[in-house]
Amino acid sequence: MVFPTAHVQPRTLVRDAKPEAGNRMTTPATPVGKNATDPSADAARTAIRKARGALARYRVMAIVTGVMLLLLCVELILNYVVKVSWEDAIRWIPFAHGWIYVVYLVTVVDLWSKMRWKFGRLVTQVLAGVIPVMSFVVEKNVHRDAEAKLQALADQYGV
């Protein structure tokens, strides 16, 4: 069976201007230098900028979520172990932690998708929001790994 071939546009080639070269075809014309508009460098610059923004949002939410989780633990200890009844003063903590955790999950998924990490990293970050003190430890490791990856990407594309 013969498949019909689609019409493919030929690449625009630059003719060699040297007379001794005999008008032969050479490589495609590409801009050179830092002022040139390289689509891959522009795309890398945009991706790095977006990933750094997602990382900053994640860092803030990881710290806020960790603090709220510690406050929730203190509230639970005071309420159920020490039997101190400050219900009016600390009743808002579980609700605040719940909504802050939802926002934290959004920032986790945003950073995970922009950094293109494996699924295990997502699970670790999600669990860090419900285990006391773990959000601080995971945030430090995530920030270190993300910065290293973004710096390597910036060096690779020269941005």
Automatic annotation (TrEMBL):
Membrane-spanning parts: 58-80, 92-112, 119-138
Region feature Disordered, mapped onto this chain: 17-39
Keyword Transmembrane: yes
Subcellular location: Cell membrane
GO cellular component, one term: plasma membrane
DUF3817 domain mapped to chain residues: 55-144
Domain of life: Bacteria
Alphabetized UniProt keyword annotations: Cell membrane, Membrane, Transmembrane, Transmembrane helix
Pfam families: DUF3817
Topology versus the membrane: Multi-pass membrane protein
Protein name: DUF3817 domain-containing protein
Organism: Luteimicrobium xylanilyticum
